[in-house]
Structure formats: C-alpha cells, structure tokens
Amino acid sequence: MRTTGVQCDRPFPIGHETNWRERKKDAMRVAVIGGGIVGVSLGYFLSRAGHSVVLYEASDQIGGLAGTIRLGDVEIDRFYHTILSSDTHMQELAAELGIADRLRFRATGSAFFHEGRLYPMTTLRDFMAFPLLRAIDRARLGLTILAAYFHRDWHRLEEISVEEWLTRWGGRRAFHHLWRPMLRAKFDGRFEDLPATYIWARLIRTRSTRSGVSQREMAGYLVGGHMTLIRAMAQAIEAAGGEIRLRSPVQEVVVSNRRVAGVRVDGITEPCEAAAITLHPPLVPRLLPGIEEPWVEDLRSWRYLGVVCVLLALDRPLTDYWTIYITDESVPFTGVIETTHYIDPADVGGYHLIYLPKYVAWDSPWLQRSDSEILEAWLEHLQRMFPTFRPEWIRHARVHRERYVEPLFHQGQWRRIPPLAPPLRGLFLVNLTQIYPALTNGESLTRHARRAAEEIQKRMAEEGENPARFFMP
Prior knowledge:
alpha+beta; FAD/NAD(P)-binding domain; 5-stranded parallel beta sheet; 21 strands
C-alpha cells in the first residue's frame, strides 16, 4: 500500500529539494526495508544526496520504538525518549529540517530507591551526602566517573568485565550497593560477561550533559516527540520524489547472480539496484531465502534485550524526579521515568507521564503475561514505593512490549558485528549492533544512519555501476 503526504507542519527545508529533476538521471533506486528511526533517517540522508528511495514498513506507522499512541486528543510516546543537551547531531538535524524551534530543554533531577526510601541524586551536594556509600566510596565513585571520561580506547575495555572494572575503580561496596542492582535490572540478571564498554559509554553520555556548579542534568524533547523529527524526514523523502509505503512487508530481497535485483512485496518483484535492510539481525535471514552462508547464520545467533513497559497518564505529578533508579530487587520494574519533568504537560494534553520499564531477556515469562497481570503487579509495587499514590489519579494506563530493543553484547562479541556491506552486491545491513559501543538512543542512531548513507554511496560508486539504468520514473 502506498502512503503519501506524511503529516508534518513544517515545509521541506528550502534548498534540499532543488535540482531533483536535474539529478534524477544520476539517481540510484534504493529500497530501504524498515521504517524505524534508523530506516527513516537512512532514507532521508540517501534522498538528500539525490537518490530515489522507497521505504517499506510492515506496520501502519513509521517510527518503530519511537512511535506514538493516541490518548484522547493527543499523541504520546509509546516509550520514553530524551534528547540531552550534548546530543549535537539531533539538534543539528532538527535545525536542518526546520523544526529546531520545537526543541525544549530543562534541568532535571534523579534519585535512588533503596530499601523503601528515596535518596536524591540530582546535585553534587546530593552525591556527597549519599548515605548508602561511605566517604571513601563516594570519592572512588567520582574517580570511576573520571576514569571513564578520560578513557579513549574502548577496545581495551573489551578485555575486562563490567564488574571487574567497576570494582577496580569504585570498590566492592559501591558495586554491591549501587552498580550491581542496576545492572541486574537492566540486563534481567545476566551481566556476568558484559564488557566494561557498556558502563563507559553510559557514564560519558551522562557526564556530558551536566553543567554548572550544581552539575544538574539537562534533558530535552521535541514537541510532539521523536515523531516530529521522523515525520519531517519522511516528508523530506517524499518531497525529493521518494515513497513511504506502510503495511508493506517485504517478503524477499531478490538476488540474481549474487547481486540485488529487487524486492518482492505482495508477490510482485519491484526492481531496485540497492536494498538497505534496517531490521534486527535475527529478522534478516528470512528475507534472503536460498542464501546459506556463514554470515547469514551469524545473523540468526544474535540475542536481544526486550522490554515490558507500563505507561501511566496521571492527573498530577508522582514525584519530584525525572528518573528514579531502583536498587530494590523485589520491585519488578527497572525504574520510574517521569518524563513530564522535562516535557511540558501542556504539550501532552495536560497529563503527567510515568513510564515503568522492565528490560527482559528473550525468554522472559513477563513477555507472556497478560496486560492485566502486568498492570496489577506494577501498581502493587508502585503503591508500596509511594504510599500516597492513588489509582484514582490514573487517566490512562497502557502496557507495551517489544522483543527487540537492544542487542546483547558479551566480551569479544564486537568482532561479530554484521558488516554494512555483506558479500552480495547492492545489499546493505544497517542496524543497532553497528553503533557499538555507543548506547541505543536517537543521537547514536541518526548519526549511524548518516554514516551508513555515506558508506552506501561510496560502495556503489566503487562498484562502478551506472545507477541510471535501474531508475524507474
């Protein structure tokens, strides 16, 4: 099904669409498979370079994990997303697309929930008074952050587990009281061979957004969520002559003489000279029937973290904090994320939005539980954490699940990251594994899409193809 006229209330930036007709003769016809933020970003960057992009998305909405749901008269993010003040690529992209005036930033606060109590961890003063750690532990925790900030060679961190590295710098007590509970929650209890690169990337990202004497975090958003950016890029693709096709699952990437010849959709082969698959690696082999090679088998072996996330839209604030990290292992969810401490409630229908995520392994029984079972368990623990909370405050409650959220990396696994250009001409793989060791967020994903688009153009030019011969007007 062809879908045109993707809604965005900003015009396509002046200049980007110029000379499209003149450039048409040099265009590659590229099929982009997958309409998440990576796929849409990749399609945008390829379109902007003058190529003819057709983006195929199986569902009825682009955006993937950055998609929205409707609550009453407003659209709300299904999952929580943040733009940090240090996310320069996202901010530059917003300016490029003419939507920078919809960016907002606020100072935020965080806390820890431990053994029934909340401990603020917003300012330097809070850090120095943190009662779960002794003075020497706090000093070593600061040293841990500095060690991460000044470390540049992440390959060396691959040789050491996250537990060993955190214990070496911060000590056993800090690891037991602080890091271990958070790692168990984040990785569903399985972090034994997790490399130290994970915590290194996380500490750098968090440290880079703190400023001023108080060292408070700055968090931000686009009015309308990440979908504002995604829709603007989709509109740009269409303005450049490309297409966005929803409810159009690709059944096969057609390969002839070891090069891409087209994609099969609804039983019909549509010619193209390049196909960029932005799906998660385990989902790729089914698009390549008959290609039985080691690199295809390796795609099947990847494991991912999934998530079960309860979204509550309340009629009032729940806490004073953006993020509450939970070190109490009896609580089923990972944290309490109250995004309306940096999102103006007026931009989300006056609601106060609470996200209660639980990251889960691929075989977690929570993925099989009913919405009512999950909601009952989550609210029971939320009531225990916050005795003044009343269910009557809830205006909407939703339970969302995703099996593929973040690839799981073990020590040495970076050597198995799928290549962008596997050994089939015209085929490209662009996915989350390739951003390693960066964390999975809008900043790293849009950066990766830009780099991938540049590499795809370079590879096709090196092959010496004549793009015009496959162009379909």
